[in-house]
Specification:
RNA binding, Translation Initiation Factor IF3, YhbY-like_sf, alpha+beta, 3 helices
Length: 97
């Protein structure tokens, strides 16, 4: 569980990165889950962009976070930010406050 200070810190870091995973008209699919898992394994912080489904963004994001065992940092507009600490200490690039 992230504190509000940690969420703010991660949101600041996420401001400089581009979304790498997209959710389209089909909504959540196995492909989206796999893509998010892959990105979280390569980087600790990932932005996801919603192309459609305006009303379900928060619930989709919470469900995705549970499925990939990550923290949902924030949902702002059509972008969700996810964080998952690297299991290998040598691969960790983010040090939380």
């Amino acid at each position: 569980m992230l504190t509000s200070k940690q969420r703010g810190y991660l949101s600041g870091l996420a401001a400089t990165i581009q979304p790498t995973v997209m959710i389209g008209k089909e909504g959540l699919s196995e492909g989206v889950v796999r893509a998010l898992e892959h990105e979280l394994n390569n980087r600790e912080l990932v932005k996801l962009r919603f192309i459609a489904s305006k009303e379900d963004r928060r619930s989709f994001s919470e469900q995705l976070a549970q499925e990939v065992h990550a923290e949902l940092v924030r949902v702002i507009g059509n972008v969700a930010i996810f964080y998952k600490m690297a299991e290998d200490a040598e691969k960790r690039s983010i040090n939380l406050p």
